[in-house]
Amino acid sequence: MTAHDQSAGKDQVSAPNGDAAPSISVSDALSNGWLDIWYQPKIDLRRKCLAGAEAFTYIHHPKAGLLRPEDFSGALDEDGMAKLTEHALMTVLRHWTEFSGAGFNMRLSVNVPATVISKLSIDALINAHRPQSDSWPGLILEMTEDQIVRDAQLTQQIFNELKAGGIALAIDEFGAGYSSFSNLRGLSFAELKLHESFVRNCAVDVTNAAICQTAIDLAHRFGSGAVAVGIESAADLQSLTVMGCDTGQGALLAPPLPKDAFLDALRQHAAGPRTSHAPDAANSERVA
Questions:
Q1: Whether 61 contacts 26, CB under 8 Å
Q2: What is the pLDDT of residues 123-161, one digit of tens each?
Q3: pTM of the prediction?
Q4: Any idea which architecture 34-283 has in CATH?
Q5: Cα–Cα distances in Å, from 138 out to 40, 56, 181, 194, 287?
Q6: How would you class 132 by CB atoms within 10 Å of its CB: exposed for 0-12, middle for 13-18, buried for 19 or more?
Q7: Cβ proximity of 109 and 287 under 8 Å
């Protein structure tokens, strides 16, 4: 991924397909409607039903093609990331109303960098755009472990203020950072998301298995849910289920999908026969 194009502005990134690829401004992406929100189902591993979904922002550029979050997020400065995050939050809140109207009441998750969480006045933003429905289950904001531990006290203060509005914290990429249990002790979080590097091959790698089991047990001791990210094999899925992991995401279960395709998939699963790993959308429920 190319770094910022300094001559073009702070919110620009370059497409990852050569020097001839156009630079892409976040402002241009917003004004031209190039930003898409995709959803990846989160599956209750015990009940084999839909437990929620995580939102991802993609850029669909007419020349550069489809850019995944990892293609551009690392190149954005704070202003560009704030614009993307604000767009994602408002879009996800609007989409929840559409999902709910179709009969799928699920709790959605959005990644929010620590650097913009106070800059955006998220409490006011969500209050202004949240669904006006008694059945709205709230929103989960995901922050990476390394971002949280930089100032765990401030993070907890912010989420204490957001809690009354139905907003919960998920600790993302757990295990990739260097936090100690003392850093987590003062935090109130809904989900602990196991880093995919430990989830992968946990069925055969004794070290990965031990780390996953420890993280799952830790989440439960905090009264929170454990989420395994990046599940790619049936063996790993089975091992995580035996370990007591609550929720899973990954290519084996379901890939991220554009909003309309995601909604179509929910309808198909609700109408058709269940498969071994497909989400039972008709019986979707909130976890954490």
A1: no
A2: 889 989 999 999 999 999 999 988 888 877 888 888 888
A3: 0.86
A4: Alpha-Beta Barrel (3.20)
A5: 18, 18, 27, 22, 11
A6: exposed
A7: no
Read off the pLDDT of residues 20-51 as tens digits, 9 standing for 90 and up.
Answer: 445 677 888 888 999 999 999 999 999 999 99
Amino acid at site 32? N
Task: Identify the CA nearest to 86 among candidates 135, 40, 37.
Answer: 37
Q: Decide: residue 110, CB within 10 A, 0-12 exposed, 13-18 middle, 19+ buried.
A: buried
pLDDT of residue 193 exceeding 90? yes
Structure tokens at 27: 């402002």
Closest among 266, 250, 247, 248 to 258, alpha carbons compared: 266
Contact 257, 38 (CB under 8 A): yes
The rounded distance, in Å, linking the Cα atoms of 201 and 60 is 33
- 3-class DSSP string for the chain: CCCCCCCCCCCEEECCCCCCCCEEEHHHHHHCCCEEEEEEEEEECCCCEEEEEEEEEEEEECCCEEECHHHHHHHCCHHHHHHHHHHHHHHHHHHHHHHHHCCCCCCEEEECCHHHHCCCCHHHHHHHHCCCCCCCCCEEEEEEHHHHHHCHHHHHHHHHHHHCCCEEEEEEEECCCCCCHHHHHCCCCCEEEECHHHHCCCCCCHHHHHHHHHHHHHHHHCCCEEEECCCCCHHHHHHHHHHCCCEECECCCECCEEHHHHHHHHHHHHHCCCCCCCCCHHHCCCCC
Q: Looking at the chain, how many residues does it have?
A: 288
Strand partners, 108: 53, 139
Any idea which residue has 């531990």 for tokens?
149
